[in-house]
Structures
1.
Amino acid sequence: MRVTRLEFSGLRCFDSASLAPAPGLNLLLGANGSGKTSVLEALHLMAYGRSFRGRVRDGLVRAGAESVAVFVEWRESVSGRSRRAGLRHTGQSWEGRLDGTPLAQLGDLCAALAVVTFEPGSHALVMGSAEPRRRFLNWGLFHVEPAFLPLWRRYVRALKQRNSLLKTRRGDGQLEAWERELDQAGTVLTRYRERYLEQLQPYLAATTQALLPGAGGSQLRFLPGWRREELPLADALLLARERDLAAGFTSVGPHRADWRIDHATIPGREALSRGQAKLTALAVLLAQAEHQAAVRGEWPVVALDDLASELDRAHQALVLQRLHGYGAQVLITGTEPPAGLARDLVPQVFHVEQGRILAEGPAAAAP
């Protein structure tokens, strides 16, 4: 998968801007505060429906603008076809098009354009709450399991209906009907998630061995969101019904799912240093990208924000050589070319300054 054109307007410091990334390595260079990260935000917004720095309404829309608009064209490696998508978001409402067709569901965009992003907040994938880890699972499955997206929507609809009934304290036949729907959709959804993590395991083992050899091996552990080893989801919902009626929300089920990584030589995530947490998160994201490439036959676009401040010189070189070897399209931001840029890697360079993106010549390797 290769982005051939990215245009956006009304985004943070940009009135409007565009760039045409090269197939391989692309560097977005500029001073602090110049807007480099915002370029990656535009791409991330199209692929995830949100910025990696928060919700659209939390400062993504440029002051004085009514909305942020993003347009992306990309080419799929396997099919050879070109695709295009547009999204306009006010922070309250949105409208989007995919290959010229209006969309009713934002998830259709998320399932079309595949972008894996590593940024300063990515350590939350390991150290933070369960929500980003659930998003990680869902996003990965959107791209490798066609049946997952409609199943996930079915579960979310049933969950909303049950929660609405719980808030009005209506324990009638409607509640039982929506619990059956939650059970049917949620049980299958959980199997997809569990199998997905099992498939990621060998890729994670390889990436953690490369990035964190001192971890002694890493294992993904799935937490389904209820005591599945003791009872099926239908029974868990029934047992929790009185408690849920009192609380006004559904306390068990796949919407409460989580996962964790256990390193053989590191006793729990609390023992991870910030640097180890970053490397663990990067290993997980690269494992996801490698798995997708294996299943779909093409790599997602890889976006690395402020790589030099997140990784030391040796790990920068390792990651760049790894991605170069795979032939992935990579976009990296920084104040200067990465210290780990080998001489055989000649990236396309874009200089970003307030409200402008200027294409320059290839970057020289750092001494």
2.
Amino acid sequence: MALNSVNTNTGASIALQTLNRTNDALAVTQKRISTGYRVADAKDDGAAFAVAQSVRADISGLTSANEQIGGVQGVLSTALSGLTKVSETMSNVRAVLVKLADGTLSSDQRTQYEAQYKSLQSQVKNYIEDATYNGRSLLSTTDGNIATVRNEKGTAYTLTAVDGATLELGTLTAGTAWATTALSASGDFTTKMNLINTAMNTFGNNNTYLQSQISYNKEKMASLETGLGALVDADLAKESAKLQALQIKQQLGTQSLSIANQAPQSLLSLFR
């Protein structure tokens, strides 16, 4: 091939190829800096992007699971608050029943204590009925009142509701015998108190489980996000240094191409 040719400029061709490669590398670096990602889409690294999308889906699932658990916690906390008030009221109920079991009470005194018992009975019922959150309650076994928690894979954990009616106090009967029987080992008060304590224990354990699940989900999300960052995040300090180097290289490439394009001009002097 002739070195002195106006048809073929080898130097310009080489300079152009080098400049094109520099521009391509510069575009990649600028994309990483602007997005903050080394792998912003499948065009950057198909395999890494596919893995990243799978991890992002797991994180999204965990986030949604925690949001759903938060709602269930509201139902559970409301039920526990209601049971706590019922339990506190039952202490007063016991005191009144002990007095009603006293055969030495005057008729007027008994009437006063019976009225107090009925008031406490009404309070217990109200606490149970009012323990609702967003229209749902764990102190009712009617349809829609069983809370279900799901993890990011859809696996369900059901919180069993308690029939609040079984916790309500029995109707007062005149005389000392009813109060004495209610306080016995198998009596109405003792039976209801045991049911309330069992429900509080069950819901307390459920609350501990939910808190642990939320904490675990948060830790898992943190681990997934760390791994995701290592997979797709760009090293901006490195990319910044690389950007400056490529910009200088681009300028030099442009100058080199300009010089190569001027070479054929020297052939004109041969015809003067």
3.
Amino acid sequence: MESFRFSHTNNVAFALLFYPVNNPGKIKQRIIDAAKVEGTEGDHERDTVNFSFIEASLITSRLHLETAINQAIIADSQGSLRTKTAHSEILFALNPTNNITEAIRRYGVSDKSESLLVVQITDSSASVSDVEIKMKEVVDGTVVPFGELATITEWDRVKKYHKLDKEVRGKGEETRSFIDNIVISSVAMKSVIQ
């Protein structure tokens, strides 16, 4: 379990990397259904899936993810969320365009997701073990060390979504580092250039 602490707020974010994921379609449907159910039952189900389910193959580094989480926390604390929750705001922050539907479709869980980063933003009093148990109850998959992200990232898709196909050639470590810097900067600057 990775943890991200933010000194400017009382928030902490926890993240688990799952690969492979055996139930992506069920997770997606569960999120959709939870949004429709009303009353106490709906509140309970929404709490059960109160995570950001991120397509891990589009995340280039720990800093890329951390920057998006930070942007979501800042937007939430300033009352300037573009989406309904801080968890969906992470997906919005990751997407290079301002299209919320596109962000959820690209960066959220899909029926074809093979890997997921599951993130929960909470306050600093949350129990790491409780959060991990809740994540594992929703995702049927294998938890792998965060260092495995480097082998999961689909660099060609990242380049395509950020329109870097023509500008960036090659597949070496130097090229990946260059792409990582661009996508991190894109996330960091998104709220400034809107």
